[in-house]
Fold this sequence. Notes:
By secondary structure, the protein is α+β, with helices and mostly antiparallel strands. The chain has helices at residues 11-14, 16-19, 295-298, 300-311, 347-355, 372-388, 394-412, 427-443, 445-458, 466-477, 482-489; strands at 83-95, 100-111, 118-121, 127-133, 136-137, 140-143, 146-149, 158-167, 172-173, 183-188, 194-197, 217-225, 230-232, 236-243, 246-257, 265-267, 269-275, 281-287, 319-323, 329-330, 335-338, 363-365, 462-464. Helix content is 24%, strand content 27%. An eight-stranded mixed β-sheet has the order 5-4-8-2-1-12-15-14, with no helix packed on it. A five-stranded mixed β-sheet has the order 17-18-19-21-20. A three-stranded antiparallel β-sheet has the order 3-7-6, with no helix packed on it. The longest helix has 19 residues, at 394-412.
Amino acid sequence: MSLTARTGLTLVLSLAVLTGCSGEVAAPDALTTPAPTAAAPASDGVARASTPPLTDPVEQDLDLAVSEPREDSVYPDVGDPRVDALHYDLDLTWEPGRERLTGSAVITFRAARTAPRFQLDLGAPLAVGQLTLDGEPVRFTRRGKDLVVQAPITADDRHELALDYAGTPEPAPAPTTRSDFSTTGFTVTDTGEVWTMQEPYGAYTWYPVNDQPSDKALYDVTVHAPAPWTGISNGALTELTTDEDGTTTSWQLVEPASSYLITLAIGDYAHASNTTEDGLRVDYWTPRGMVRRLEGIQSAAATVDWVEDRLGAYPFDTLGLVVTASQSAMETQTMVTLGDTDYVMSPQVVAHELVHQWYGDQVSPSDWRDVWLNEGMTMLLQWTYEDEHDIRRLRETLDAARAIDQQLRDDYGPPGAYDPRQFGGSNIYYTPALMWNELRVELGDEEFYRVARSWLAAHDNTSVSREQAYDHWESETGLELSEFFDAWIVGRTTPGPGVRAS
């Protein structure tokens, strides 16, 4: 997720860099959003209002999605470590006039533990009809969002849970003090259109799910909506049909994703596309008739090329961006979800969300205490992008970020031990970005990015912990980094410059 509105990736602009303020440090709530800086569109152009090509669906390889679920240390009330979801098959019908969602879900899962019962997360406003386990009706109870299935499971056995549900979804309160979002999950606009963003949780507001990042799964999602509206989700578009009942789209995600990286957008969308240098098609889904300039988001293809030079080949087979009525941006896997403000659609925010496809999506945190693993490296790459595209000098950004680091630790806590009520504070972005930059300076760009790439290759399609990251960087560099990492990630005081001095 990008920082927008409240701190707007703007720490560096709201301090002395642009405002010319003196030694007085502004509080994060006082930071202002900069005007976006235009960038040239991708050189190969964009085909406007084109018909999106379809991809043949494939048989999902469930073994790719075997995970080791855990109880989250920050938000333990969400998710169930007894469940290892392998595949979600969702069939969704949206009626905007009634604001009613009707869903059918088939969840294939592995029992991660032997237990007398298990549960999924599902929003309380969604009423459940029949529920079956391996084709047989079973008892279940509801406790708020907890859908508790009263059936025993044995470790490593695989099961198929099927249920129908319907109702008017309600977004979940977000554990944050940011101003660009206060709820997560299923959101309905005044005109009945739908968008979703669900970090750190909130997928459960629209489908039954093990809503914790350590449990990655594969997805097939079909959306029925009134014509000419289109349902957008992750992965490859495998069906697009329109008849007297409306428009049906089907999407298939063939590499596992954490639930917070799934998106659903329903509205009147136009499609366009361009390609990267290596021929990857980038799809753009924008509200039909949108009058905002689109150069920022259409820079995505060229930006993928830029990221690949540092982090290696794009890790998935498809890439798209969908613009919604949000005020923020989210790195939803293979289909980035963007709000419709000028800043959120700017090239630097697009770059931020694209870097997340590597750091955050290809490799995800296993626990929300380690969200900094996503945001720190991504923030440093965004700052580098801004420097190399004449948006903002890296040296100025780093100096301003260091100037406010202590205040961020005081206000939100260290990035690896933040206040759970202030999820997504600036501390999980800027502080670890500063840390990674110190290591980049110590190692040099070539070695730093080599290790950054080897980390991704070693943990492809998995969810990881900070301990794994520390071990990898120490092993690859031959440096003793435990004190360095601890000082930056859990220390209460801003470390001094340099790696060995930390």
